[in-house]
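Comment thread on ticket #2218

A.B. wrote:
> Attaching the input chain for the structure job we discussed in standup.
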Amino acid sequence: MRIIVAGTFGPIHDGHRSLFRTALERGTDGVLVGLTTDELATGHRDRPVPSFQQRRQRLRETLSELDEWGREVEIREVRDRVGFAGTEPDVDALVTSPETCGTVSDINRERVGNGLDPIEGVVVPYVRAGDGERISSTRLVAGDIDEHGELR
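C.D. wrote:
> Ran it. Output below, let me know if you need it in another format.
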């Protein structure tokens, strides 16, 4: 199975790590990681986001630390909501959080329009912080929690 996981991933936290582990575990034929460009990452955020280069480097390090299966991993730029998932022929699934699972429908509409088979959505539950709320980059940047969800 070839898997896609995509996002801004800046800064990386345990919620992201859960997505990555799922993608790596299921991605027997490889994992494509979509990383939003600086323009897309900062266009709708009210918080600072590390640069694409910084996010890509941290992403590589994190994936390497988590990859106990020795998967082939490729990181690609994502410039819009659907990204390359709508045109990449050899993918089977998209790993997503509950927050972004609706993207699978948009991707599948584009895929079918491009003569491709739909992909499966693999929804990974939120990872919760010490206060029971979900871990997010916004909360991390605000200083409410650390990358593991521990309250500050």
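A.B. wrote:
> Thanks. Noting for the ticket: The chain has a mean pLDDT of 96.
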